[in-house]
Amino acid sequence: MKYSGIWILAEQDGGRVQRISYELLTRGRELAEKRNTDLTAMIFGHDINADDLQELIDCGADRVVAMEASELEHFLVEPYSACMLRIIEEYRPEIIIAGATSTGRTLMPYVAIKAHAGLTADCTVLDIEADTGNLLQTRPAIGGNILATIKTPSHRPQMATVRPRSTKPAAKQPGRSGEIIRLEATADLLTSRVRRVGFEASEESHSLQDADVVVAVGRGIKKSENIPLMQELADALDAALGASRDVIDRGWMSYPHQIGLSGKTVTPKFYLGAGVSGSIQHLAGMQTAETIVAINTDPDAQIFNVADFGIVGDLFEIVPVLTEKIRQVKGNG
Amino acid sequence: MRIIVPIKQVPETNAVRMDEETGTMIREGVEAIINPLDLYAIEIAIRMRDEHGGEVVVISMGPPKAVKALREAIAMGCDSAVLISDKAFAGADTWATSYVLAGAIKRIGGYDLIICGERATDGDTGQVGPGIASFLELPVASYIGKVDSVAEKSCRVHRLVETGYEVLEVDLPAVLTVVKEIADPRLPTLRGKQKARKMDIPTWAGGDLKVEPDKLGLNGSPTRVVKIHKPTVARNCQKVAAADEQAVEQAVDQLVAFLQGKDLM
Ligand SMILES: Cc1cc2nc3c(=O)[nH]c(=O)nc-3n(C[C@H](O)[C@H](O)[C@H](O)COP(=O)(O)OP(=O)(O)OC[C@H]3O[C@@H](n4cnc5c(N)ncnc54)[C@H](O)[C@@H]3O)c2cc1C
Ligand SMILES: Cc1cc2nc3c(=O)[nH]c(=O)nc-3n(C[C@H](O)[C@H](O)[C@H](O)COP(=O)(O)OP(=O)(O)OC[C@H]3O[C@@H](n4cnc5c(N)ncnc54)[C@H](O)[C@@H]3O)c2cc1C
Q1: Domains by residue range for chain A, with CATH
Q2: CA–CA dist A306, B80 (Å, integer)
Q3: Which of B65, B105, B128 to mutate to test the pocket of ligand 2 (most atoms within 8 A of CB)?
């Protein structure tokens, strides 16, 4: 049997389908159109919300294959990989894409070894050769200094993980229909030598990636005592506060705030960076923002190359005035 | 307990310069260092050994000069090292890299834990740790930020995920991949450096491992890098200067008007 069809790994948390699943549908749909084949979402979990499964179809999947068992409630590498391998055996997908999440980045390499598949990490661009079905996977490497395009010419399936937030989630399209298949997760697939015995939630981690507006602090802020200046601007704009790595490394803000290659990718409507130079690694995490504004004393700062609007000047003079002005405008609005 | 730490020698990426024409890395003058996260893996391994007894074995697959990274690890306090080096390994992707490392780990044998960095700064895939686990049929716990306790047959760890920390109990033997918060790496000591200089570090080639020749290096790698290019970034920036108080006022007004024009306020 030959390998065919585009597959994505949808993720759930507490039975609810997660945003990354819809981002992968956007990617998968493009590839499926080009290759003239169908798109299937696989999902593992326990008591997965039925409306959410239907929504995967409404948003672009032609088919959903769900495997459910209490052992699959949370990600555990052994049962999840056994289930994915079961799917590979049964359906022979030509391509499997997953999010470059803590789940995807653990599960996919574990499976790729056993399936003798090529796996490309953290892709930002995916394309396909319509005739051969070869996936063209582009990803940053060597500290973001280069982009590499990678192919897997003679192994199937082809596997890739995709950076979260590197594309928009697929929207519902009226009138779509598709099949929801429940594949039995037999007991032999469910043994695990890892047990999840607890969970400690952290509050701040999600807000930055979900925000429509992001204000980023760079080393130009000079010391931690000056952070409140930027916090006030962020509050006035109703924005989440992020930072460059130099700010994080100095301990002025905590790691969940880091934007960039080794931090979070953000795709807000509006990003404003002050005292951020715009290193290639920082840009890797924010250049897909719709509108970018930069404030920097150095007229040649790299960040201006990706900005739509820039103010060349001292942030300590500009930011307070800007904050005040925004408050006024919003107050009147 | 026996802990094996695979470490990778990488170019000091902060200093990486690119050849604009070819899009390749200029390697001259760039120092080769231990992958930064691997220092954290070494540190937690040494601490576990000091608490529970046993030994830490470091291994690295790479060219002969990677022996320098192994000596540094010995200087930090690891007990022994093996270099895994063969021309046939060149061009390995993560599948073929994990295959050879798993082969070397099998030859060492008797291990309780294998501790990797979560990712290396150059290839930057984070796939080798889970890959080794898969070849060895071991469980893997990735993104480990804390080791809570270690018992004879299992350990309890904190795994960093998007929404917080999972607390996991992992049967041994197992593979862990670690992130920075696990422990602050120590510096090599003078005595450690002396020991490292004298240490006899064996080199294992393909023939010393139970590996199939057609699964090595570029030939054994499913993936192929077909193109390397420089990221390009450009937008049309409307730039205004704000050198004095009045100019600041004006610039801010222009910015606010710009944002209102885009319906961003
Ligand atoms: C493998 C690797 C991964 C990395 N990952 C990341 C990552 O995820 N995220 C990240 O951000 N970085 C990352 N980096 C680091 C990156 O290379 C840069 O060092 C970092 O982004 C620089 O931060 P910065 O712009 O705040 O500081 P700088 O580069 O020091 O820039 C400070 C800027 O502030 C300006 N300035 C100074 N004073 C003022 C003032 N009064 N008013 C206005 N402007 C002022 C200066 O002109 C300058 O442009 C990574 C590096 C490597 C090698
Ligand atoms: C530009 C570029 C892009 C690439 N993209 C891909 C890709 O998408 N998919 C792919 O399969 N390969 C890819 N490769 C090949 C990959 O870099 C190599 O296989 C490399 O040997 C290991 O991968 P890594 O650097 O990503 O290590 P990671 O998986 O990030 O390393 C994680 C940990 O594994 C251990 N480790 C890794 N390598 C070694 C080693 N040689 N010796 C001992 N321990 C080690 C260390 O503990 C390390 O901290 C790429 C290479 C380049 C140059």
Answers
A1: 6-189 (3.40.50.620), 203-332 (3.40.50.1220)
A2: 49
A3: B128
Domain that holds residue B263: 235-265
Q: Which residues contact B73 (CB under 8 A, 6 or more apart)?
A: B5, B7, B34, B42, B58, B81
State the pLDDT at residue A204. 62
Stretch A202-208: mean pLDDT: 69
Per the structure, the count of domains in chain B is 2
Query: What's the confidence (pLDDT) of residue A206?
Result: 56
Question: In angstroms, what is the span from residue B207 Cα to ligand 2's centroid?
Answer: 22
Contact A119 B16 (CB under 8 A): no
ipTM: 0.91
- Same structural domain for residues B79 and B184? yes
Confidence class for position A207, pLDDT limits 50, 70, 90: confident
Instruction: Let me know if residue B124 belongs to a domain.
Output: yes
Chain A: closest CA distance from residue B148 (Å): 12
The bridge status of strand B164-171 relative to strand A194-201 is: antiparallel
Q: What is the pLDDT of residue A284?
A: 85
CB contact under 8 A, A310 and B239: yes
Instruction: Please tell me the distance between residue B57's alpha carbon and the centre of ligand 2 in angstroms.
Output: 20
- Spatial distance between the Cα atoms of A286 and A212, rounded to a whole number of angstroms: 12
Query: Would you say residue A186 has pLDDT above 70?
Result: yes
Q: Which of B93, B229, B233 sits opposite A146 (nearest CB)?
A: B229
In this structure, are B211 and B239 located in the same domain? no
Q: Are B248 and B157 in a shared domain?
A: no
pLDDT at B137 over 60: yes
